[in-house]
């Protein structure tokens, strides 16, 4: 099968190569998925570049030795291992992500995925939309539904409202009845408003941390301000969700600000909550129901063919994607 393989860290254009490799076989509890689409997320560019270096030192980025990257997947069940409740031909979407940045397998024609990290794609939802909704959709859902139980009338600010996670977070918070403020650049204001944000702030003109408005929840997907400054925009019982590894390179990138947010929370002055991205069958099913009902949709910036995965990852590294970046895999040859 064709796959995007990496054997060292570096810029995507230099280290990602399209190669013929052996097709994986599904083990017990696993599903072999004929990939039709994947999407690019923060863990993918981290795994490709090996930056921030601190994650390498912690052993949280697997050594790049002939590995296939990519975690989000949408496709068709080709074969199943023992004890799997999907049938051949089912349309499924899900994740290979583990919290250790071992994103292995989705940028390929076939991949083996644990069945509990897959859910059926609902009728009317395409492969690209499904793939775009895995990490971004689940991360936003975990933040807005679980980390804080966003309710009718709450004031929610989403910083980085026009990115992959932000576009879902704005829609979900609005769906749960919140009064949403989206912070994004000038060219994305209308798009974010169209997703359900009642207010939009153009960060090139206005610094939301300097304003007089106070929010019950701030989901910070950018961490471009020190967390103590961002917290100034919180209502007295407000919750800050720091959610960014940052855009910089070097040893730490945004990890330093995440640590500062942790100290801020530990000092007891601010309710700081970190939010996971748990692509369980249950969470994927919740996302699929929201997609099927039209409550949310995936915003897709651009779709790249598999052989242009390096360009797709480089696009993500620009940190100005408008929604999600998708990789599309044609139907390909039938399996022998
Ligand atoms: N909790 C988890 O497990 C988990 C999982 C996935 C991702 N994440 C985190 O979530 C964050 C967001 O991910 P993503 O996929 O949404 O990233 P993304 O798609 O790369 O975000 C790009 C967006 O950020 C916006 N942006 C850039 N600079 C900005 C600024 N100064 N102020 C406001 N917006 C700005 C850009 O808008 P403009 O083009 O308008 O500038 C662009 O639309 C990442 O940092 C990642 O670390 C966490």
Automatic annotation (TrEMBL):
CDD domains: MDR1. Residues 13-327 form the Enoyl reductase (ER) domain. It holds the Pfam family ADH_N. SUPFAM superfamilies: GroES-like, NAD(P)-binding Rossmann-fold domains. This is NAD(P)-dependent alcohol dehydrogenase. It comes from Glycomyces tritici.
């Amino acid at each position: 099968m064709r796959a995007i393989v990496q054997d060292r860290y570096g810029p995507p254009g230099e280290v990602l190569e399209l190669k013929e490799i052996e097709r994986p076989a599904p083990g017990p509890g696993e599903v072999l998925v004929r990939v039709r689409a994947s999407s690019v997320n923060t863990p993918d560019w981290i795994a490709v570049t090996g930056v921030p270096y601190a994650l390498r030192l912690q052993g949280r980025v697997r050594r790049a030795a002939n590995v296939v990257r990519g975690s989000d997947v949408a496709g068709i069940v080709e074969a199943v291992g023992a004890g799997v409740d999907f049938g051949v031909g089912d349309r499924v979407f899900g994740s290979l992500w583990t919290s250790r940045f071992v994103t292995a397998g989705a940028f390929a024609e076939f991949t083996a995925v644990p069945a509990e990290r897959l859910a059926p794609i609902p009728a009317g939802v395409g492969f690209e939309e499904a793939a775009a909704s895995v990490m971004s959709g689940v991360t936003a859902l975990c933040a807005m539904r679980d980390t804080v139980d966003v309710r009718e009338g709450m004031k929610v600010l989403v910083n980085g409202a026009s990115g992959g996670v932000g576009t879902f977070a704005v829609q979900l918070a609005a769906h749960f009845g919140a009064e949403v403020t989206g912070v994004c650049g000038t060219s994305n204001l209308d798009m974010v408003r169209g997703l359900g944000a009642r207010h939009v702030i153009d960060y090139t003109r206005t610094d939301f941390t300097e304003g007089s408005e106070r929010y019950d929840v701030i989901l910070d997907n950018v961490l471009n301000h020190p967390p103590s400054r961002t917290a100034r925009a919180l209502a007295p019982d407000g919750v800050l969700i720091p959610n960014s590894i940052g855009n910089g390179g070097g040893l730490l990138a945004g990890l330093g600000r995440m640590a500062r947010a942790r100290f801020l929370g530990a000092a007891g002055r601010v309710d700081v909550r970190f939010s996971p991205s748990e692509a369980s069958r249950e969470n994927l099913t919740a996302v699929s129901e929201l997609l099927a009902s039209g409550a949310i949709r995936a915003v897709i910036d651009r779709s790249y063919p598999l052989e242009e995965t390096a360009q797709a990852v480089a696009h993500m590294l620009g940190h100005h994607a408008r929604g999600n970046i998708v990789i599309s895999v044609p139907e390909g040859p039938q399996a022998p």
